[in-house]
Specification:
By secondary structure, this protein is of the alpha+beta class. It has helices at residues 2-15, 124-155, and strands spanning 23-42, 46-56, 62-71, 78-83, 86-93, 97-116. It has a four-stranded antiparallel sheet, with no helix packed on it. A hairpin with a 2-residue loop joins strand 4 and strand 5.
């Protein structure tokens, strides 16, 4: 009897297991979106000018002797005038519009955490109880079938 009690206690202790840990899975989703849009950039008006003193040598070639004034600009179209041996260079640029495509990039990062619970396992005594219940059900069905056969033979003994 003691051996049976020890076996039952050992089976009970063996069937009690620690629960399995949860499985945690991290997923990082990075979404990049690029938006292309047409853009117009306007520049401010710009101008430049230069005045210089010109001389002729003995052969009749014109050369620049002295720059009287000089104002520089950024984007220029030169206009040159020579009046009384003075060259006048004027450059003016109205405001201009430059058309180009501007690309905006947006990045969205999302972290998703999935927690997966492991499936629960049946314990040993639960399996025994289910097996015992099934045996009892089959035994009851067997007894019912045998009883039905005997009852049928009892009512009709010569068939």
């Amino acid at each position: 009897m003691k051996i049976l009690a020890i076996i039952v206690i050992l089976i009970g202790l063996a069937s009690c297991r620690a629960p399995q840990p949860l499985v945690v899975e991290k997923v990082r989703t990075v979404t990049e979106l690029e938006v292309v849009r047409d853009t117009v950039v306007h520049t401010e008006p710009d101008s430049a000018s230069m005045q210089a003193l010109l001389r002729c040598d003995s052969l009749g070639n014109v050369y620049m002797q002295q720059i009287v004034s000089l104002q520089t600009g950024r984007t220029l179209k030169p206009q040159i005038r020579i009046v009384d041996n003075i060259i006048t260079l004027d450059c003016e640029v109205d405001s201009i519009a430059v058309y180009f495509q501007l690309r905006d990039r947006y990045t969205h990062t999302a972290d998703t955490i999935y927690i997966t619970k492991p499936p629960e396992r049946e314990r040993f005594f639960t399996k025994i109880a289910r097996t015992g219940r099934n045996i009892i059900i089959y035994l009851i069905l067997f007894v019912a079938i045998v009883a039905a056969i005997r009852y049928y033979r009892f009512i009709n003994p010569f068939k």
